[in-house]
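hi!! sorry for the late reply, been swamped w classes. u asked for the two structures so here they r. pasted raw, havent cleaned anything up. first the sequence of the first protein and right below it the tokens
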Amino acid sequence: MILLVHWLLTTWGCLLFLGPYAWANFTVLALGVWAVAQRDSIDAISMFLGGFVATIFLDIIHIGIFYPRKDLTDTGHFGAGMAILSLLLKPLSCCLVYHMYRERGGEFQLHAGFRGPSEEHSAYETIDSPEVPSDPFAGPEGKGHTPQGY
């Protein structure tokens, strides 16, 4: 339903705003089709969510820059209104898509990277022994053996 509503509003918004507005929004809608087609994929729904968030900012910039100040026809008013309505509905759509993302098993992790890897969420399992030699290049004399004289 989200895809259908935003597709319709984007199509009508393209009556006035062409080019980058259309490319950005239809690309995100294609990611949405991918997310619907692969219902078990966290990657698809996360890219769809990220694209929706990105197009919120891009639409604000695009509408703000390219909105005509005068000589706007009725069709132009309609297209601008639909583009603005699509922009107003995107935060609600982002909340719904985020809910679907959580249902698919995704979780929001924001790691800055300076604190190191997270131990509790790590899928990495070491196969080495827990004992680490203090000096792996030490010879037999460093391991408790006495040197033999010849």
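now the second protein. again sequence first, tokens right under
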Amino acid sequence: MPAKVKAYELQSKSKNDLTKQLSDLKSELLTLRVQKTTGGAASKLTKINVVRKSIARVLTVMNHKSRQNLREYYKNKKYLPLDLRPKKTRAIRRRLTKHEVSLKTEKQHKKDIHFPLRKYAVKA
């Protein structure tokens, strides 16, 4: 295994390649932990951190790709899953939509039609 996995290199890999690499990294971490308990060399112990970070990178890229695929799938659908919707704040999410704000009651609509704003010729 290379010393450090680069995230941009992982982006081009397929899901099967990523899962294979993940299992390889996990098995490597397992052997390093065994060496740690049996009293391995210091150089092996410092590699544990690098392998853990590499595992995290692979998982992050996998998660990112799956979310990207889901976004593509739900692109033109009516509803989005909750985790793909914009977070914003609770108050903003509950606020009326622009369409709901622009709606008028029937009474207000009639009042606007029958009693329009008066136009005055006098300039203030």
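hope this helps!! also noticed smth abt the second:
The mean pLDDT is 91.
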